Structure formats: structure tokens, C-alpha cells
Amino acid sequence: xxxxxxxxxxxxxxDALGLPERAAFSSPDGRVTILEAGRATLEIADPxxxxxxxxxxxxxxxxxxxxxxxxxxxxxxxxxxxxxxxATLIAEPVRTPWNSLNSRLEGPAGLQLTLFEELS
Length: 120
Description:
The chain is of the alpha+beta class and 120 residues long. Helices cover 27% and strands 33% of the residues.
């Protein structure tokens, strides 16, 4: 991710979201911080399914072509903590048909985030 406000992005994703710092490098041209985000999966959806997911989680189509989802222990608390840390709330946590409690945020650098808590 390229962030024009590098410090804010690092503070949010490392300190507020809690992604551990793996490494950091700098050059005369800039800086990069690598954060550990755990195991990743790539979810590929066609436009109809993407519309459905947005409708369930937000009530309308809002996501761009990339949205990052993070599993959290308590979606309600994590949503509140991250909005207090600077994220923009798009949608409060909602129970989904796939039995999770999902919220939607926009984080630094315009990255759309889903926070999900598995309920079963």
C-alpha cells in the first residue's frame, strides 16, 4: 500500500490494529514498514456477489475492487477502537448470513477494511 501520510498509516495499522512490525527500511527516497498480517487468503468475487456482500454489510455498494478483512475477537470493540484511532466508519457491525459479525471501515490511505468476528 502506498500512503501519502506514512506515519499515520504505520500508527494505525501497527499500533491501533496491532499488526506486528516485521521490518522497516529507508532509503534517500523514502521509507517502508513491513507488518505481519498473519495467514492470508484471496477472496475473488464476481460483481453480483460483491454487490451482495456490500448490501449485507453496509446496505449499499461501497467497496472498490480491493477490500481487506481482518478477523477480530470482538467486532464491536475493535470497530470502536479503530474509529477512535482514525478510521472512518462505513457501517456498524452487522450479523451476516454466513454467521459472522462484520463491520466496515475506511483506514488510512483509503483502504477499505472489513472487521469480522466468527459467531459459531
